[in-house]
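Key result, reporting period 2: structure in, sequence out.
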């Protein structure tokens, strides 16, 4: 499974990458904003996106909307990984096309549970 980490915080991407490696998921690409993520997505092969909401250039929701508009990516699973914890935000993300939602900070077990591993 190829995973794309999309977060403007290099520290958060490093933490997520370490958590994923602990689950045996080592095929990981990284983007620091939604614009970079769209470019990586176009290169193909991504199965799962861990997506932050608040980023420069193109935020997580903007990325998610553009991604879901393209039918080629309908099967790519998206987990919003964000500090946005208001119920209305969770509902908005799920309605836009996120498959799941996890609030930062989270531990490896919470991520593993969301991945169904």
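The corresponding designed sequence is given below.
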């Amino acid at each position: 499974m190829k995973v794309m980490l999309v977060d403007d915080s290099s520290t958060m991407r490093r933490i997520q990458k370490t958590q994923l490696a602990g689950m045996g998921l080592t095929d990981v690409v990284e983007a620091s904003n939604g614009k970079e993520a769209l470019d990586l997505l176009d290169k193909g092969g991504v199965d799962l996106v861990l997506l932050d909401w608040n980023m420069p250039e193109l935020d997580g929701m903007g990325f998610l909307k553009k991604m879901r508009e393209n039918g080629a990516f309908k099967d790519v699973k998206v987990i919003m990984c964000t500090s946005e914890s208001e119920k209305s935000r969770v509902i908005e993300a799920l309605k836009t096309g996120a498959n799941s939602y996890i609030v930062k900070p989270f531990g490896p077990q919470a991520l593993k549970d969301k991945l169904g591993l």
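The two ends are 12 Å apart (CA to CA). The helical segments are 10-22, 34-42, 60-69, 87-96, 108-115. This case is discussed further under Risks and Mitigation.
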